[in-house]
Specification:
By secondary structure, this protein is of the alpha+beta class. The chain is built from eight helices and 19 strands. The chain folds into three domains: 1-51, no CATH class; 52-195, no CATH class; 205-307 and 316-441, no CATH class. The longest helix has 27 residues, at 318-344.
Length: 445
């Protein structure tokens, strides 16, 4: 109550406090504390710097029309890929006159992403969550997104608009104000669109968590799975992509292979593509493999050691570092696309088999992974540096776009049980030594 009274008596300090809090939330890393020493951040609280529209383009955020104050209004999305859209933004129109900055509604036309043309405005019923009308049903503006891949419509919502500036060119005169130094900039409007995920198949929609009274060992409600549900489980690997298994539940006992399911497919998934040579012949390319990325990392580490102590505010070997980042991002995207494509249209060209489309994708939850390997040099460091979150992020997004439901599962027992017969065993790989094929078994604890 004291704080509320203080802010009411000092509105200028309250406005500055809001700016400070939003600045810390948007631009400042969390401070390292005694209780959480692993948090990556500053040891001391940083000094407050007013946000700049050029250096901090994320600051230009416009709230939705239903919020107060309004940031934008009269949003008209393009009806086709060749038309343009328009929106009115609340922009500053001049310098401060002592009492504040003058502003006005400015109509802005834009050439939109083709996906925005798949949104159409509709009226939806929403429930009021705050105030004296809490619980009442009101009519509000909404959108419906037509998914041309799944041929269905999904509920969508535009929650905000961001104004970003790219390709900024500044004049090299430090004595002039920043508004006079700006030569040119390319503005972009970024729309924050939330699209409701929806499964494509009826079997995936029939999965329920709350219709049964049974509980798992961890206390969570057990899922009810419909008969005929096809699932694809992928065991991710640090060096390659992973091992994929496709199975179906709810089949007669005579058709079951083990544990109440029928195994349909079991194979290793690798990243690569077939490229054409100059002669016209096709050649298999492994794509951005880890060995290639490791060579670039060793090279940039050697070059930075030769350069010596870096100058504050300068970055060295920017192009090579950007090339490494793009290779890693390309590898994650291709791996996720390979897994999703296999789940959508799995086939075995050698045997001529085609498999049923997957309803559910399962992946391991390795949030509590603590590597303690002892028999292979560098394996702990490799596991700790394994940027698995990027791969899972792309995998989830692609599954949502394809209408496949995805669930994390416990990693207990994976890589130790045969996916074909369910028997305990040792992991192995095929290799060639002295011109003949040999089997190399993995370590067993």
């Amino acid at each position: 109550m004291r704080a509320e009274e203080f802010w009411k008596r000092n509105p200028e300090l309250h406005a500055l406090h809001k700016i400070h809090v939003q600045y810390l939330r948007e631009f400042v890393r969390p401070r390292r504390t005694r209780r959480n020493k692993r948090r990556e951040g500053f040891k001391q609280r940083p000094t407050f710097t007013m946000p700049d529209p050029v250096r901090h383009p994320r600051w230009c955020l416009f709230n939705a029309p239903q919020t107060s104050p309004q940031g934008y209004r009269l949003l008209r999305l393009p009806q086709s890929r060749r038309t343009v859209g328009s929106v009115e933004l609340r922009l500053l129109t001049g310098p401060s006159d002592g009492a504040g900055f003058p502003d006005a509604w400015v109509n802005v036309r834009f050439k939109a992403d083709p996906r925005l043309a798949q949104l159409r405005p509709v009226k939806v019923a929403r429930t009021v969550t705050r105030g004296k009308n809490k619980g009442a049903k009101v009519e509000a503006d909404g959108f419906r997104y037509y998914d041309d891949q799944l041929l269905i419509e999904r509920d969508a919502q535009v929650s905000g608009v961001k104004l970003l500036f790219r390709d900024i060119r500044m004049a090299p005169f430090a004595d002039k104000p920043i508004e006079d130094r700006l030569l040119s900039a390319t503005p972009y409007l970024v729309f924050a669109v939330e699209i409701k995920d929806e499964a494509r198949t009826e079997r995936a929609k029939a999965i329920r968590f709350d219709e049964t009274s049974e509980l798992t060992k961890s206390g969570k409600k057990r899922k009810t799975l419909p008969a005929g549900l096809v699932s694809v489980a992928v065991d991710l690997d640090t060096r390659g992509v992973g091992f994929l298994t496709r199975a179906v539940i709810g089949v007669p006992e005579i058709q079951q292979t083990h544990h109440g399911v029928r195994l349909l497919q079991s194979r290793y998934v690798a990243v690569g593509q077939v490229e054409a040579r100059a002669s016209g012949e096709a050649e298999w390319s492994p794509g951005p493999d880890l060995a290639h990325i490791a060579r670039h990392k060793r090279e940039i580490r050697r070059l930075r050691q030769l350069r010596g102590k870096p100058v504050k505010g300068e970055r060295s070997h920017v192009r090579l570092q950007a090339h490494i980042d793009r290779m890693g991002e390309d590898r994650f995207k291709k791996a996720a696309r390979k897994i999703v494509n296999e789940a959508l249209r799995g086939s075995n060209p050698a045997a001529g088999d085609r498999y049923t489309r997957a309803d559910v994708l399962l992946y391991e939850s390795l949030e509590t992974l603590l590597p303690d390997a002892e028999r292979e040099r560098g394996i702990n460091r490799a596991l700790l540096r394994w940027n698995r979150a990027k791969l899972i992020e792309h995998l989830k997004r692609m599954c949502d776009d394809a209408g496949i439901r995805h669930f994390p599962v416990s990693p207990f027992g994976t890589s130790q049980v045969c996916s074909k017969c369910g028997a305990l065993g040792r992991r192995y790989s095929l290799a060639r030594e002295n011109g003949r094929a040999v089997i190399r078994f993995g370590w067993v604890e």
